[in-house]
Amino acid sequence: MCQKIRLLGLLLTLSLLTRLTAVAGGGADSAALRAFMTRIRKAYATNHFMDFHVRYYYANADEPQVYLDSLAGEIQMEKENSRLVLDGIETIVTGKYAIQIDAAEKTIYLTARRAGGTNPIGMVDSILAHMQGVQVSVTKESHAEVLSIGFPPDQAYSRITIRIDAKTGLLQKISYALNTSKLVSAEMINRPGNASPYQARGNMDILFSDYRQGKFDDNLFREDNFITRIGPGRFEPAGRYKDYHIYLASSNL
Prior knowledge:
The protein is of the alpha+beta class.
């Protein structure tokens, strides 16, 4: 697995599980974006105990059909709770915590949950409310609606395109045109084992599929499946994780 795609995939996935913030300001672009995002929020909020597959594909910008690497994972969501499994890393987000479990390293990273929901398109967040020069358009097709966001030069992303099902409002595809040199360090880029020569511009496609409901219940998100709180800022691994080491990544636990 190429380190570059692993890093970008995890970066974007963590963003997918963070809050979605409406764009400040007025105007047609802002209104169209807000309406598009509201529709997605409602779609995921009203479909209970939902699970689906997610796949990441990375390519250099000059050969967008030649995928250099990929990641595959799955997501379960219910209200404010979510579970993501990607590249051997399991992340549980509850009302209080984000619990990341690395079975290979036998570690648990514990952080306080960020304020906000867990709708899966957090890359379009409050940055849009403050960045000048963002261009937004929404187009409708026979079976889909497509949001396109163009960014000013020299940003980490030059364009984000989000495609949703016209009937359900659920995500089908998110595409990022990336200035990857702003996301990955030179040391990471040049590390041996990368699948192809690095280029400064790349494309990341995220595909969502196989939506289902009712295949799990609230027990999936129980914090005591993973950790036990034994005092202020003190935790120990629970159950089958008892030989794991816990790292506290927040001071307010």
